[in-house]
Design a protein that fits this description.
16% strand; 2 domains; binds ligand GMT; Rossmann fold; six-stranded parallel β-sheet; alpha/beta
């Protein structure tokens, strides 16, 4: 098939999922056209079947807010016509689904269906803002297909927007050959706790520091903070206040997580809400047990006390206790790490999930949906 994919190209999870999906589809022989304002970070354009089309937004002085949505729609239309795309697949509803709708309406010679994948805050935060509620609902209603990444997200979307379209749950996925355990590298040096996020308030990165300060009272561990965003400065300040800054490494944005994660012993994900928790899945594939919060779609991924742990949001002591147990009880760590890897292999591997997208594309092209 010939598919146009649009996503936020920066470090968010939705962009990562969209990019990995495009790369996997291209490996399976599809022609994938990324249409975005910048090159998606994980996109290797030397992969056969991958194409990238940049959206240029005019900075004409009259525009206080450059109309990206319109420039995107125009570029989608142009690429769809020239490349004879079979469908558009947009990740994150706002504004991508509205641009796709416009591109569809501009295409008068044939049917150009579009699919919207809802990733999280496009529904739970952005969609909930009064200025975006109606347009988000409209974009869902007008999509020819809607997918989302967890049962929680599907239920929240129905409940919140009261839409009637069917919503397909297709979980996030991980390449289990790329993301895999490395016991040799894990055995070198002190115990290491990893946090990965875009450091927005919803990720509760300050909890990582508070929990770590408790863990350090019992274990000489290190904390590795990967990513960047608005709460990085406050997290660094808190680390100094609590006297644990010397044991924390703030790495900033990281491109090769498949090399970093296998060196770690625990992944800490204390989010306020999480539509799925891609970082936890990538850790599980590497045999690194996640200690996360019981929130949103995380229960779709983690089975508590089997392949990871889910504690209450904000329960600093509970989260610290779990991390300490995993770092000090080797047989517990081995059991949970093996179960985590087994879950990734059995339920979320690329080979299981990509065919679900392929068959959904076929159904939408054949007229399924709204
Ligand atoms: O909703 C967001 O926070 C943005 C989005 C992103 O683009 O980073 O993250 C969401 O999508 C990821 C990939 O599908 C999920 O793994 C994250 O759980 C989800 N984030 C939240 O729900 C907070």
């Amino acid at each position: 098939m010939r598919i146009g994919i649009t996503c936020y190209p920066t470090y968010g999870g939705s962009g990562i999922v969209a990019t990995d999906l495009g790369l996997e589809l291209a490996r399976r022989g599809h022609q994938i056209h990324f249409i975005s304002y910048a090159h998606p970070i994980r996109l290797d354009t030397s992969t056969p079947g991958i194409h990238y089309h940049e959206v240029e937004v005019s900075n004409y002085p009259l525009f206080q807010y450059p109309p990206y949505m319109l420039a995107l729609a125009s570029r989608m239309f142009e690429v769809a016509e020239r490349e004879q795309l079979d469908l558009l697949h947009v990740h994150y509803a706002i504004p991508h689904a509205i641009s796709a709708l416009l591109a569809q309406q501009m295409t008068t010679s044939r049917r150009l269906p579009f699919i919207t994948t809802l990733h999280g805050t496009d529904i739970t935060v952005v969609g909930a803002e009064p200025s975006y509620f109606s347009i988000t609902k409209f974009s869902i209603e007008k999509s020819d297909g809607i997918t989302t990444i967890s049962a929680y997200m599907r239920d929240r979307t129905f409940e919140f927007f009261g839409v009637a379209n069917p919503i397909e749950v297709i979980h996030n996925f991980v390449n289990c050959s790329l993301y895999r355990p490395d016991e040799e590298r894990q055995s070198i040096g002190p115990k290491r706790i990893l946090h990965i996020s875009n450091f927005r308030p919803v990720k509760r990165v300050l909890d990582c520091i508070r929990v770590f300060a408790l863990v350090r009272k019992q274990v000489e561990a290190q904390l590795v903070m990967a990513g960047d965003g608005p709460d990085r400065g406050p997290a660094e300040r808190l680390a100094r206040e609590l006297g644990v800054d010397a044991s924390i490494r703030f790495l900033g944005k990281q491109d090769n997580l498949e090399r970093l994660i296998p060196e770690m012993h625990v992944l800490h994900l204390p989010s306020e809400t999480e539509a799925f928790g891609l970082a936890a899945l990538e850790a599980m594939a590497c045999g690194v047990p996640p200690v996360a919060t019981r929130t949103g779609g995380v229960p779709d991924l983690i089975t508590h006390d089997v392949d990871g742990y889910m504690e209450t949001v904000g329960d600093i002591t509970g989260q610290a206790d779990r991390i300490v147990s995993l770092l000090t009880d080797q047989s517990l760590h081995r059991r949970v790490a093996a179960a985590a890897r087994a879950t990734a292999l059995a339920r979320f591997c690329t080979d299981l999930i990509i065919p679900q997208y392929e068959s959904y594309y076929q159904r939408v092209c054949n007229g399924y949906g709204t």
